[in-house]
Every structure is written in structure tokens, then in C-alpha cells.
Design goal:
single chain; 191 residues; alpha/beta; Rossmann fold; five-stranded parallel sheet; 14% strand; globular
């Protein structure tokens, strides 16, 4: 697995921790009782979070679906993610909750597979957050249409304006090149 995928999972886990421990309705039960134990969770505030687990959606490129177009092999995405989830779960999970990954492959050619993955993860599996591959505007299904948190994809001002759910990314901003050129110019590095 490439380094960004590991970074994405790390960010997901941090957010899962924050999300699983926040959202207290005043009764002290959303994140569990004092002392770090688990408690009841309001599914409306934290879909996919129960007293003992947190569902994390993981989308990954379905390279078998495009094998006739291009022959790529980046290894076994599911096995790599499972190893990371197992390591966290073997260390006690997050706030006493085990992470329960839900894997959905996405054909990177065309929006149909991404739309089906979104529906599966948000409507059927009702995950807490989804991490993984989000090409073009595909993450908007999650963050705009289904009000479901996402980590991944490329944020643009237009996409961010449409998002109604939390959305984090490890991708550089759309202004990265402009900012880099401006800094090079200010530092007189073009001479």
C-alpha cells in the first residue's frame, strides 16, 4: 500500500476517536462513561458507532474491473487495510470500540461504481466515516447527498460549498501550485 493510504487510515482513526467520544447529549453517554469505558451512542449523531464498535467504510480501486484496459497491481488493498485495523483492534480499538471495516471496491472508470459504493456504505452499512478512493466529484454523494463523513478526495471551493458533512483530505489544496510559485517569486528563486 502506498504511504498516503496509511496516512488516510491514520486520519480516519483519529476522527473516529474524536467522533466516538464526542456528541454527548448532556447525559454523558455518547462517548461512554468517565474513565474511558464505553456507553450508549445516539445513532443519529454517530451512525455506525455502537457501544463496542465503529464501522469504517473503505473504498479502493477495483483493478480487476479495468484489467483489460490497463494491467496494474498495487497489491492486496483489503489485506493491507485489515492489517492496520487488526493492529488498532489488538491494541484495544478506539475508546474501547473495535473498528469494523466495510470494504467496497470502486471501478475508477465512470461514476456508476462509485455511486453504488456510496449507497452501500451510507444507506445499507451506515458507516461512521468512509476513507479511500474518491475520483472527481464522487465524494459529493457522501458529503452532500447522504450527510456522511469522508476522508479523501480533492477539495475545491465548489465541492466544499456543497458539502454538508465533515470532509477531510490528505490531498494538497487546489492552490498548491499557485502558492508554490508565489513563494518562489517572493524568495527570488526564479533568477
Amino acid at each position: 500500500m502506498r504511504k498516503p493510504a496509511v496516512l488516510r487510515l491514520a486520519v480516519v482513526l483519529v476522527l473516529a476517536l474524536i467522533g466516538a467520544s464526542c456528541g454527548d447529549d448532556g447525559g454523558g453517554t455518547a462517548g461512554g462513561p468517565a474513565g474511558g469505558g464505553t456507553g450508549s451512542v445516539d445513532a443519529g449523531k454517530a451512525p455506525g458507532v455502537t457501544a463496542d464498535s465503529i464501522k469504517i467504510g473503505v473504498t479502493y480501486p477495483d483493478l480487476e474491473a479495468i484489467r483489460d484496459v490497463i494491467d496494474l497491481d498495487y497489491g492486496d488493498y483489503v489485506a493491507t487495510y485489515e492489517a492496520l485495523f487488526d493492529d488498532i483492534n489488538d491494541s484495544g480499538g478506539i475508546n474501547g470500540r473495535r473498528l469494523e471495516p466495510v470494504f467496497v471496491p470502486v471501478n475508477p472508470l465512470g461514476p456508476e461504481s462509485a455511486a453504488a459504493a456510496c449507497k452501500q456504505l451510507t444507506e445499507v452499512d451506515e458507516v461512521f466515516v468512509t476513507v479511500g478512493i474518491f475520483l472527481e466529484d464522487y465524494m459529493l454523494c457522501h458529503v452532500e447527498e447522504h450527510d456522511s463523513a469522508v476522508i479523501g478526495g480533492t477539495q475545491t471551493p465548489d465541492r466544499l460549498e456543497k458539502a454538508t458533512a465533515p470532509w477531510f483530505t490528505t490531498e494538497p489544496s487546489v492552490d498548491l501550485q499557485t502558492d508554490a510559485i508565489r513563494e518562489f517569486d517572493e524568495a527570488d528563486l526564479f533568477d
